[in-house]
């Protein structure tokens, strides 16, 4: 097996212009599947971190309110990744058929 040839082909494919419509469509479908869950994770993470920080600030003045905000922030941050995974898997299931069919179509015409 010629590893230099394989490396050269992968490198050439990486730098080759991707003007083929099917490849662009496949990339867009992949982005449509992944983007909403990533946006949700970022927004929830920022909001829960702000809750946690506000709770830390308030803990010196209003102890119970500060503890409550810190608890909400901690729970939200802890649940952020599992919620992200759930949303990502649902989106992947939604787009799976289209992505697989388009990928098969691309592979069929490349050979």
Layout of secondary structure:
Elements: H1 3-15, H2 21-58, H3 63-110
Helix pairs in contact: 2-3
Residue-averaged pLDDT? 89
Reported for the largest beta sheet, the result is: none
Shape: elongated
Q: Distance between the terminal alpha carbons, to the nearest Å?
A: 19 Å
**H/E element order:** HHH
Count every helix, treating DSSP H or I runs of 4 or more residues as helices.
3
Task: Describe the model.
With 111 residues, the chain is an all-alpha fold. Helices cover 89% and strands 0% of the residues. The chain contains three helices and no strands. Helix 2 packs antiparallel against helix 3. The longest helix has 48 residues.
Features:
111 residues; mainly alpha; 89% helix
Can I get a quick summary?
The protein is mainly α and 111 residues long. It is 89% helix and 0% strand.
